[in-house]
Every structure is written in structure tokens, then in C-alpha cells.
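Exercise (ungraded).
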Amino acid sequence: MVAFAAGLYSLEAIKRAAYALMARATISIDPSDAEVRCTIEPASGEDVAQLVRDFQREVLDQDLRLDVEAKTEPLRNMILGLAFSHLSQNG
Amino acid sequence: MITLGSRKIDFAAGQEIDPRAIVRVSTDYHRPLPLRAREAFLVRGDDAPAGFASYLVLPNGRCPDNVAAQRRVHLPPEFEYLDDGDVVRLVPERGEIRTLYRRSSPHNSFLLTERCNNYCLMCSQPPRDVNDGWIVDEILATIPLIDPDTGEIGFTGGEPTLLGGRFFELVQACKSYLPRTALHILTNGRTFSDDAFARTLGSLQHHDLMLGIPIYADLPHVHDYIVQADGAFDETIRGILNLKRHGVRVEVRVVLHKQTVTRLPALAAFLARNLLFVDHVALMGLEMMGFTRANLDALWIDPDDYRSELTEAIGILDRARMRVSLYNAQLCLTDQRIWRFAKRSISDWKQEYMPECEGCIMKGDCGGFFASAKHRYSDRISPIAA
Amino acid sequence: MAKFLALAEYEKPMAAGGYRPLPYRFMPLSGDRYVLTNLVGEFVITERESLRVFADGQLSYQDELYSELKSKHFLIDGDSDVALDLLAIKVRTKLSPLANFTGLHIFVVTLRCEHSCPYCQVSRANDDRREFDMTRETALRSLDLVFRSPSPAIKIEFQGGESLLNLDLVEFIIEEAKRRNEHEQRDLAFVLATNLAVLDDRVLALAARHQVLISTSLDGPADLHNKNRPRPGGDSHARAIAGIHRARMALGRDQVGALMTTTAASLSRVRDIIDEYITQDFDGIFLRPLSPYGFAVKTKSYAAYNETKWLDFYFEGLDYIIDLNLGGFPFVEHYAAMILQKMLTPFQPGYVDLMSPAGIGIGAVVYNYDGDVYASDEARMLAEMGDTRFRIGNVHANTYEEIFLGDALLDPLEQSFAASVPMCSWCAFEPWCGSDPVFHHATQGDFVGKKPLSAFCGRNMMIFKGLLQRLNDRPQVREVFERWANIR
């Protein structure tokens, strides 16, 4: 079981991390007011301690990814817009 | 090194010469009379046919007494190189002769203006903010006199595109009068960030045009520093994109000095990733002319000290299948694996070798030195032995 | 003379204003090393802490990493914004194979074959009946569709079965296509896939007349090849080698290519296989993944077990080939070369398995002997195993619009847009990867697949990491990779 203080990481980041590790463990997520509890059922042969470390790091990375995605979204749309306007301009 | 111009010519015997004449030089005794009236005859021997607008008399030449006594100009020995088909400007009032075009040279280029919107640290032709529009008229008068079998001519500046519409007039003149001659134009490319300007040049459909445009760094502020113009990098890049979009061929030019060599591999990677579609990349050794001497501390680096960066950069460009050339480089300071990119390109009137080159077996293949290099060159020059 | 300004003057906009990150993604490599990729697959490798500092907006413009990130278009600042224009152009270049739509058209001219390879799902060995031959009418209707494709370059590839067993039809299609192309003016090319066992002068004359490329099978040295590819007489290898020499002599060395199929028996033999390709004077080899078709594809255990073994096979082969290059012998591994082209150049290879959205129907389309149209060669194999999900129509029953704009093609295409798939949507390798809906349908029952369970995903991830590690650790290897990336 791993618990994160509520609001520390986005729930989306925790969900993504659980998805990414699906081959190694089944992770169920139970958010409450105070914390997000994650129950980890390792696949056979998985080292639980390592799995927990990897999961925590994955949550951290996913949280950063969500942050980066949000920050770069407007420029992303602008670049794609430029790319496709050129496309129509030049056939 | 040859002398292209002099203002110490005695026109005492040339009082009938036009006050400002651009004339084709002839050595042809059977030149049709109508053409003689607007050409100069080059007197090398002891005879000269009648009827030419002027007579350029070399030291060993002798004009017969009965030929045009008031149309003679006596030239000093440094003009012995003049020959049939060359074009010169004569300005008696200033005692001036200037060679504008030499038929035998592969390096004929025309300075279109001295004005420039960059102010490069290493500019070999420091810009002057002068009203020099007369130059265009002179070149427009010269172009029809150039041998149409000339391989290539060049336009330089200053920044040629600052001429605006007259720039296109000059390109059109080359297209019309020199249909077999390549045209190479040195420009900083910034004006072409205006898409309409690039489109107009493209629409002229010159048969063999190449624009040489400098990019000195992958980082915009470093390029802007080197050309001393904020925002120049963005304009130059946009200019290149516009030119290529309108079908104009572009050569990227990089001068090698202390401010450009550190990030040279990064610049090469940038070019390979972003401007792979340019037609040529020219890497060029530093010329000790103009501003370079004033900024020598900021610019000078011994080529021996940027060997590895140069080799790596050329490798990156070559593996990306870009066409690459290395100019003004001395082979003894260059890794042998990139010798095949080295070109002898220094104009024949500028190229020299140093005393240290004595006995080098590669001299015939080496780019050698600008004549100006006597001011500063590597102390690690050594002859390559067999 | 005016005064010159110092470099610091030109750094002021950076010093003053901070920076804006451009879209990027990141993935851990090993330990604390992370790779960052931008929209078009340019990449920077750095430590996790530096990544965090960069993401937090705290990276100093004087940091070397700042220069690298700016040069490779991971950020813009007050100094310059031309990066946006350049990125837009690079995005467009990467998407250009899509704009051309279908370029490769595969004609299955017969299912008959004189080989009886166990890994083959489609041939009808030793079958003399003509019911498995494509008819002229089917060929003509297929050509109608070929020339409806907007692609300026059209490649027609003949497959079987053994394509030479229906040579009359091959000749008919080539001549008909060329006749139509007099009006169409496409860049038209032909490829003949054959095991070369029944090669004769008539084939060579035809190939020479129309500049037909020959693509043959070479699985490795004689014992392995013959084991993989049984035929009466057990002489498949000898016939292939003799055929390669004959075809090269008649058509030119570079007009003959070879492909290997990786089987369980290949996995311990990678050096032998590569040596065989060197012996036969090929410039490179395509170390292909194990094909899931024909195996018990729907059991997960197949994938996991075999993929690990295949990756060992692949990297052993790759390192052997890298060493050959470092020793001065140029030789290419083509799977790596395609991925490296995505990593190191502005271009995008047109290889079906590495396209996103999926290359099916876009990279290639297959016209089966009976007129059925499939979205890829794998889709046809899947159909032969009884799963016709990727049959997108029939040349006799359907129009171009029904086939190429119908749900059978567009559904998996739409779902396979990697940018919108869980895991892919945040994966830093996505700009270098592809999506393979046929594979995922075959192995997991849906077009997209759960990537953490996908052998396709796992295998490519390992390859991306393996290539990155190799090019990052040794500059000489990077040079080799740059060469491979620029074979076009």
C-alpha cells in the first residue's frame, strides 16, 4: 500500500502511473479527502519494494509531465496551426 | 596580388577621352570600326590601329605617331595583366583607371553598394552610409560589355538588397545579357524575410543564381552579436526559408573565428536538422581585412586550435548529405580526412603563400593565404613532406 | 568607426525575460539519465535534476544545457522566436509521407508456391490449380484503384505465393500500368518479390526491360535457410544464391535486395546470418522482428518469452554490425537505420510498421489474388488465419471511396493516432515510433493495445533506449548512426 497526501500530486498522474505499471502490478486507487491510497498487487516474481519505488517515481514523473503538457499546450497548438496553414498555402 | 585600380595615371596625352568612360579593352587589329569608337585598344607592341576611343599604352608599347595623340593613356607595369575582352573604367579628371572585369579571371565580382544593415565584427569591406547609387548605373553599363561565355560573376556589398528595386534590375540585366553565366550574390538575407521581396527575386527566374548568406551560430544572440544587429538571425533564417520556398538557391556561409568555432558542431547539427534543403555550405577562413584587424583579439584563433571542431562539423554536414566546401584553409592546419572538402577559392589577385610553405608538396592543392594574412597567420604553418 | 557592442548586450533579452518551454516529453533511460524529445523527435539527454530545473523555469541562460535546449528547439526566449517557424516546417516534413497517401501497392498474383515454408500463412504449396491465381480482370480493377491514389510516386510490388508462377500476369500488369502511366505521369516503379528458385531468362529480360527491382528471401546460411524454407530437393539456399548472382549480372548489383524472416531457429544465429549477407555482397541487413502470424498469437506468453530472446538476438547483431563499421567496413542494419532517420534527420521513413497514425492503407495496400483488398501485408496474413477484420473491400464489389474512406480502414486509423493513445500520448519515444493496429488486434483484440502489455511497444522501447545509449556513449558510433540515418 502506498499513500500520497491529497493535493500533492494530481489524481491523473497517479492513474497514469498505475496504467504504465500494469504489466508488473495491478494497482487500485482509492482517493479520500486526506490522501490517495494505492493498493499494489504485484505480478508474480515482482519485488514489492522495488515496485513501490518505481511507482512513486512514476507518479512524480507523471505529475511533472502533466505540468509540462499544460504549460506547453498553447505553443503546441500554435506550431501545429502554423504547420497546417503552410500545408494549405503550398498544396 | 594584382593591382585592380590606380589613381596615379597621367592623362596628359588623353585629353580627348570621355570624362567618365567604361570601355571594353581590345587587342584586335581588325575590330570593326563602329566598335572601335567605344572601346580601348591595348598597346603592347609597336603598332596600333586607328579609330579607338582610347589607347592604353603599356610600358613596352608604342603608338605610331599618327594615331590618336590626344587619346593615349600610359599605364604602369602592374597593368600588364590587362587583355582582350576586359572592361575598365577611365576617369581622367581623377587620374583613375580601374579594372571592372577581367575575362580570364574566374573571380569577377561587383560591389553593388557600400551600405549595409549588418556591422560584422570581421567585415572585410566596412560599410559606409553613403549615397552610392551611381554604382548601379556603372554596373548596368558594364554588364553588356562582359563576355557572355564568362562562367560566373559575383555581386557583393555592403548589402546588395538595400538597393531595393534596382537590385532586381541588376539581376534581370545579368539574366538578359549573360544567359550562360552563373550569378553569385553575397547578401545577409535579412531583406528576404519580406516574402514579397523573395518572391520577386524568384519570379525573375534567373537561370543560374546562388545567394551566399551567412549564419554564424545556432544560437540567435551569438549570430546577432557577430553581425552586431539585434534580430538579424531571425530575419536571415526567415529570409532563407522564403527564398527556398520561391525556388532560389541558397548557400550558407560561415566565417571561422573565435566566436564561431566553439559551437561549430552545434551549428552544423542545426543546419542539418533545420536547413537541410540549402544548396551548399561554405566554411571560410578569416580574412585579415577591414574590421577584423580592429577586433583581432575577439576574433583570432589559430586554425590549429579548431581542427577538431572543424572536422566534426564538416562530418556532420557531409553525413547529412549536404554539399560542403572549406575555403581559405591551409592544409597543414587541417585534418587530412577533410582535405577533400578544401577548395582553392581565394581570388587570384589575393592569394599568396608564406615563407614557411617552401618545399610543401601540397602547395598546388592548398588554399594558401589572403595577401592580408601577413598581418596575422598561424605560427604552426609547416611544409607537408612527401 | 562606430563602437562594437559586447556579447553581453545581446544576451540582455535572455537575462531579462526568462523562457517559454516548447512542447516536449521525457522518459527515464537508466539511473538518473532522462531523454527529452520535442515535437519532431529532436532529443536532449540530461540528468533528472536538470530536467526538473528546466521544467520549473529556473534554468539559467548561461547553462550549457540552456544553449542545447534552445538550439534544438525545446525553448524560446525574448531573444528569438524563429524556432516556431522552423518547428512548423519540421512538423510538416515529418507528416509528408501521410500527405502522399498510398504509395506502395502489393499485388498478390498467385498463392501457388513450390516452397512449403512453415512460417508462411498464405501460400498453397505444390498446388497446380489456377483458382489461386489473380485474373486479368481482377488486376485491371486493382490498377483502377492504384491510379486513384493521389501519391506522385507509385510502387507496385508483386508477391505470392511465388510470384514467378504467374509471370504472364506480372507482365500484363507492368505493361498495363506503364500504358496508363503515359497519361498519369507518376513516378512508377516495380518490385518483384520472388524466392528466385524458378528464375529464368524470360523473367530477367522482363525485369531488365522495365527496371524491376528483385526482392528475394535469404534467411541465413544454407542449413538455416533450408530448414526455414523447405522445397522439393532441399536446395532453396543454393537456388536463391544462384538466382541472386544471375539477377545481379543481368540487372545490376543494386537491383537485387534480400529480406530475412526471423524464426525461433534464427535466434542463436545472428552472426551467421549477418556473415551470410556479407558473403553474398549485400550492403546491409534488416534484422526483422519475429512475426506473430502463424504462432499462437493470442497467448501473452508467446510475446514476452520470444521478445526477450529476439531483443538479445537483435542487439548481438547490431553490436556486431557496429563493430564492422568501426573497423572501416560499411554495413547497415536497416531497422535501426529507419529509427535513426526519425531521430537524427527531418525526414520520416515510409515503413508501414513505424508510422503513426498507422501506416495501414497509407503506407501500403494489398490486392489479393481474389480481389480482396487489405490494409497491409500483415492484414492479409491475419485474414488467411481466419480473421478478416482488416479486409477493407473487394475490387469487384466496392468503389475506391468505399474501400479507402470506409470504417474498416478509418476506424483503426483513427484509434491508432499515437498522440491520443494512453501511454503513447505521454511517451517521449512517440515521435520515433509507430502504431501497428494489425499487430495489436492480433495479439490483444483491439487496434490500440494496452501498451504496457504490448510486445510491439516493449520491443521498440528497448531498441530506442539501446540506440540512444550507443550513440550517446561513443562519438564514433554516433557517426556510424548518422550515416545510416541518411540513407534515402
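Further reading is listed at the end of the chapter. For now, observe: Chain A touches chain B at residues 90 (CB under 8 Å). DSSP finds two helices and three strands in chain A.
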